[in-house]
Amino acid sequence: MKRTGTSSRSLREVAQFLGGEVIGDEAVTLYHLRGIDEAGDGDLTFIANPRYKSKLEETEASAVLVSPDITTSTKNLLVVDDPYRALARVLTLFYPEERDPVAISQEAHIDESARIAEEVTIYPGVYVGKNARIERGVTLYPGVSVGNHVVIGEDSILHSNVTIYRRCRIGKKVILHAGVVVGSDGFGYANPGVENFKVPQVGIVQIDDDVEVGANATIDRGTLGKTWIKKGVKIDNMVQIAHNVVVGENSIIVAQVGISGSSKLGNRVIIGGQVGIVGHIEIGDNVMVAAQSGVHDNVEPNQIVSGTPHMPHNKWLRVQACIPRLPEMRKKLNSLIKRTEEIENKIKT
Q1: Which residues have C-beta within 8 Å of that of residue 142, sequence separation ≥ 6?
Q2: Nearest Cα to 159, choosing from 174, 183, 176, 184?
Q3: Which alpha helices (H) appear in 249-325, and where do they start and end?
Q4: Which of 13, 27, 108, 273 has CB 3.0 to 4.6 Å from 254, enough for a Cys bridge?
Q5: What is the arithmetic mean of pLDDT over 329-340?
């Protein structure tokens, strides 16, 4: 999908689209959306983080998306419940999606046994293997490789150089960004470090509807059964998900995370950047794991954990507060030990 150029909208029109309330001149014309520092005349900007409230009067924007706690300003305001969510919606108003032309390139290789639905776009250099099924509205960009018996659901988009190995299943409205690999062999070897005997990886990857996977992320097939990415999951760039991992619905996995084999993440789990998760553990629903943490054991639902090895976040904060003071604390401790020994010696004599 491509985004077209913007078209002008009055603040009144934008407010009607978002269901928000205007404070100021609702007739002002808006052409673009820009960040609060870059915005100028004719631009709409937003304040989603309280730390930027101080910039409200400084911005040159013609109108500002704000939360209900901001009610007065010399600027034109559009008050909405959630400015960041409203921004996501209004971007589709100013920058509507332009559908790629429905066409199948003669320079794509499509096996004669593959089933291709209507309204599919396939660019040059695409490979579609035996008995693959491509559903209605799918777009395959140049260099995409779809293995034998793969299924890709309606309206999914596979960007350039995505590779889907044999028998894997991709749901509806899935977005796979450039370089994603789905279904490569899990890292399974018997007698590791001695003979490294390869264990055949005969499972699949199943990606459910409305999943988005960032560039160069890799999701390994199951040794047996499946690696399963459930509905609504969003995965950032350069994430590694190992064999037979299950990621629960609407979870978020930030860049450079590594999840070892057979671990299970619950629903609505948020994993910060560069987190490492060992294999064969379970992380409960609504857990948040802070960036660069090392998760070595099960985590109960509704927890926030941090650190390596992981611990409750509040405890980790206390530990971190102590670290800069360790040299001073060590000096005091040694002094106390010395004084205690002197007192003990006096008592003995």
Answers
A1: 123, 124, 125, 126, 160, 161
A2: 176
A3: 313-322
A4: 273
A5: 94
Q: What is the SS3 assignment for 176?
A: strand
Residues 244 and 186 sit within 8 Å (Cβ to Cβ): yes
**Other CB atoms closer than 10 Å to residue 35's CB: what's the count?**
12
Is the backbone of residue 216 left (phi > 0), alpha (psi -120 to 50) or beta? left
In contact, 214 and 235? CB cutoff 8 Å:
yes
Helices (H), the chain: 11-18, 83-94, 313-322, 326-348
Selection from 188, 218, 193 nearest residue 203 by Cα: 188
Q: If DSSP codes are grouped into helix, strand and coil, which group holds residue 190?
A: strand
| Sequence-distant (≥ 6) Cβ neighbours of residue 175 within 8 angstroms | 156, 157, 159, 211, 212, 213
Q: Is 159 a catalytic residue?
A: no
Mean pLDDT calculated for residue range 36-61: 92
Helices 11-18 and 83-94, packing angle to 10 deg? 120
Q: What share of the chain is helix, strand, coil (3-state, %, to 5)?
A: 20, 30, 55
pTM: 0.89
Greatest CA separation for the chain: 100
For the purposes of burial, counting CB atoms within 10 Å of the CB of 341, is it exposed (0-12), middle (13-18) or buried (19 or more)?
A: exposed
One-letter amino acid at 176 equals L
Catalytic residue, chosen from 243, 280, 310, 313, is 243
- Going from the N-terminus, what domains does the chain have, and what CATH number goes with each? 2-98 (3.40.1390.10), 109-314 (2.160.10.10)
User: How many other CB atoms are found less than 10 A from the CB of residue 77?
Assistant: 22
Structure tokens at 280: 């064969």
Residue keyed to tokens 């099960």:
298
